[in-house]
Amino acid sequence: MFVSEKEVEIRYADTDQMGVVYHANYLIWMEMGRTQLIRDLGFNYAKLEEMGYVSPVIDLSIQYKKSMRYGQIAKVRTWVEQHDKLRTTYGYEILHEDGSVAASGTTVNILVKKDDFKPVPLRKVDPEWDSKYNEIARTKKEKTS
């Protein structure tokens, strides 16, 4: 399984009144992880946008396990959990420096035309990218005849 890693230095502005990382920042870090994964695989999300496509999150799940605080370094681990005709499920772990899990989760993204938001299979836009995602997806879908 291909796993991308991205380190994030936790800023004071990332914390809430209790001194812990505000929950919405984990979502931002997941996006940073997705971007890093795409870059590490040799692809460029900005090029998709230039071609007239965007990839919105249509589902998100996150489990908070152990809080993080200002001054720590978060390691965001990202992989392709599952990929099919229209959806890509990304998996995430956000780790403390000691390797303990601060949060884990998934997002489900689709590819749509920017002008009308109609779903488009990735294989029609970038067959190489689609093939790579099928190759590295952790969970393989059963093929039916």
UniProtKB/TrEMBL annotation:
<dbReference type="InterPro" id="IPR029069">
    <property type="entry name" value="HotDog_dom_sf"/>
</dbReference>
<keyword id="KW-0378">Hydrolase</keyword>
<dbReference type="GO" id="GO:0047617">
    <property type="term" value="F:fatty acyl-CoA hydrolase activity"/>
</dbReference>
<dbReference type="InterPro" id="IPR050563">
    <property type="entry name" value="4-hydroxybenzoyl-CoA_TE"/>
</dbReference>
<comment type="similarity">
    <text>Belongs to the 4-hydroxybenzoyl-CoA thioesterase family.</text>
</comment>
<protein>
    <submittedName>
        <fullName>Acyl-CoA thioester hydrolase</fullName>
        <ecNumber>3.1.2.-</ecNumber>
    </submittedName>
</protein>
<dbReference type="Pfam" id="PF13279">
    <property type="entry name" value="4HBT_2"/>
</dbReference>
<dbReference type="InterPro" id="IPR006684">
    <property type="entry name" value="YbgC/YbaW"/>
</dbReference>
